[in-house]
Specification:
Shape: elongated
Radius of gyration: 26 Å
Strand content: 25-35%
């Protein structure tokens, strides 16, 4: 290991030195504990003293005949004479909670067969990216108190993703964590996939099979904070090695410990972990949680920018791109801090995408409002395009929007049960047409009514009810349209890829949008009022023919309009249509060639 780079926080391969590593006939255990009095390895019911190496801050021991799957931990003797037994910060596997020891893993045992996928993948800026966000333990369960293994999920998950029209899946954090209710956001093993769903090679096989089926895989990664459990990173060598020593900035709003990003060893630990998941497990990208808490002290803009933490993100993202040029880096960030998706060389933070939290909040606020209030809220739905060019945005309806009393996406729609479906159909078509990559949390695609609970699987029985089944087929249709029409993704981040045809129908709650990609021109009209809108006319420059791609009020999707019934006509580049309440129409437009948008 480059020791100077480790201490300076410049390396991304610290796990190749620290942790456990197989050599001929023996396995080397190595840990970093600079303030320890001494360190022992606890293995196979033995306490084996470890030797200080290099500058005395590292401890190692080589043990013969080590078995894969064998638990181990380190006994850290403190300067005051006491000791604490810790799992390995760089351990590649851990026991299932409530047990918490590290487990010996052979990282080289699994051979991937996804070479074709790995050669063609990229950051997707000019490609479709339709993400299904999911929690592995509560998507489907074999029984109430069990989980499917990673590889057991593959024959269930892959066909579902493909038939539903998703080409990416994003897993909530899979790093080992002691508490189910944390959903993986308070970790104890940053290099260990949670044992809840099987062994490391089981996860590798799931990712391998997803790739072979043409589906990309994104991991939710947590670089801000970690669990306070005594056996993990907290007070690892008897001192605040990974966390801040002061509680005013050392404890997060979630009760966990904040990483001290100004410390080089912590930087090397975290950015090596990020690189580890991309390199060793073939994840295509990382969605990084709570970036606002890195940018500002405790996420509070009034406290000012945390310059050291911002520098850490820049160095990490730059290094991840150098080591994995085709990886996808996504920031979950609710601030207005500039340059999140600008390259580090150009002064930015180096992410590929930023979650558009403003779009999400404004859109859901609009559809939660009664129809009579939507005139006053009309420009909640136009505001996003005032700032959209500032960053490369991704549109999220994530897990955070379906928990803690917020209601599910379908429930958020105004009105009673029957009224919610047409509004949700119209809203999701608006999401489809709006520039930006897409993300939808599991269950939303069939109109889940119960808030997400990590202990229960999704309410799949809802598909037995016509409204929910029709909604699922509508969502699958939208996803298929998105994946197959370049106008909806190729020019997401070009100013000429989007145009308001009409955004001044405040009293009628009508909007009209066009999207353009190479060789394709689409137009959409939305009626978000509770009234039939008769004979609405909008000019579409150069249009000579319009063909319907989807109408949210078609009977097959739970609406009232038979497919084939004319709802619009085109005359001299003017589109005139009659739209049912809470409905949306998407059309393929042919132009005359001489007068094109």
């Amino acid at each position: 290991m480059d020791m100077y780079g480790f201490y300076k926080g410049q390396i991304l391969n610290a796990y190749e030195y620290l942790g456990t590593h197989f050599t001929v006939g023996r396995t080397t255990f190595r840990t970093f504990a600079p303030n320890a009095a001494r360190v022992s390895l606890l293995y196979a019911d033995e306490e084996i003293p470890m030797l200080p190496v290099y500058d005395g801050n590292f401890y190692e021991i080589a043990v013969p005949n080590v078995k894969v799957g064998q638990p181990y931990e380190y006994r850290i003797y403190m300067q005051n004479g006491g000791y604490t037994d810790h799992c390995d910060p760089y351990g590649f596997g851990m026991e299932l909670r409530p047990d918490h020891k590290s487990v010996v893993v052979d990282l080289s045992a699994y051979c991937f067969a996804d070479g074709k996928w790995m050669k063609q993948r990229g950051n997707q800026l000019a490609r479709p990216m339709n993400i299904y966000e999911m929690h592995l333990g509560s998507w489907k369960k074999p029984s109430d108190n069990e989980w499917y293994r990673y590889d057991e999920l593959a024959p269930l998950l892959i066909p579902y993703l493909k038939e539903s029209g998703y080409n990416y899946v994003e897993f909530l954090p899979l790093c080992e964590h002691p508490c189910d209710e944390s959903w993986g956001y308070q970790n104890t093993g940053f290099y260990a996939p949670t044992r809840r769903y099987g062994k490391p090679d089981d996860l590798k096989r799931l990712i391998d099979l997803l790739h072979q089926s043409g589906i990309g895989v994104i991991l939710d990664f947590v670089p801000v904070h970690f669990a306070v459990d005594w056996y993990a990173l907290a007070q690892y060598d008897g001192t605040a090695l990974y966390e801040y020593p002061h509680s005013d900035v050392g404890v997060s709003e979630w009760g966990s410990y904040n990483f001290m990003h100004s410390r080089g060893e912590v930087r090397s630990f975290l950015q090596s972990a990020a690189n580890f998941w991309l390199k060793e497990y073939h994840f295509d990208g990382l969605r990084m949680d709570a970036i606002s808490r890195i940018i500002y002290w405790q996420g509070d803009e009034k406290r000012g920018v945390n310059g050291n933490a911002v520098d850490f993100i820049k160095v990490m993202n730059l290094g991840l791109k150098e080591n994995n040029p085709d990886c996808i880096l996504i920031a979950e960030d609710s601030t207005n801090y500039p340059g999140i998706t600008k390259s580090v060389h150009d002064g930015g933070l180096g992410f590929d995408y930023k979650w558009d939290m403003g779009w999400m909040h404004d859109t859901l606020t609009y559809f939660q409002a009664a129809p009579a209030q939507r005139t006053a809220l009309y420009h909640k739905l136009t505001f996003s395009m005032m700032y959209f060019q500032n960053e490369k945005y991704l549109l999220p309806f994530s897990h955070d929007e379906v928990v803690h009393g917020k209601a599910t996406i379908l429930q958020k729609m105004n009105g009673q049960y029957e009224q919610k479906f047409p509004q949700a159909r119209a809203m999701y078509l608006y999401m489809l047409v709006h520039p930006g990559k897409k993300l939808n949390f599991m269950g939303s695609e069939f109109g889940q009514l119960r808030e997400w609970n990590e202990k229960r699987e999704q309410d799949w029985d809802l598909r037995k009810y016509p409204n929910h089944d029709a909604f699922y087929h509508y969502m699958a249709k939208l996803n298929d349209i998105y994946i197959s029409h370049p106008a909806l993704f190729e020019w997401d981040y070009r100013t000429d890829g989007f145009y308001w045809l009409d955004c001044h129908q405040e009293n009628r709650c009508i909007y009209a949008i066009c999207r353009k990609g190479k060789g394709e021109y689409l137009a959409a009209v939305f009626n978000f009022s509770d009234q039939v809108q008769m004979d609405y006319t909008v000019a579409i420059p150069g249009a000579i023919v319009a063909s319907p791609l989807v109408y949210s009020d078609w009977e097959e999707f739970g609406g009232t309009t038979p497919r084939g019934k004319a709802v619009f006509q085109m005359k001299k580049s003017n589109l005139t249509c009659t739209l049912q309440p809470f409905s949306a129409l998407l059309m393929d437009i042919k132009q005359d060639g001489a007068n094109t948008y």
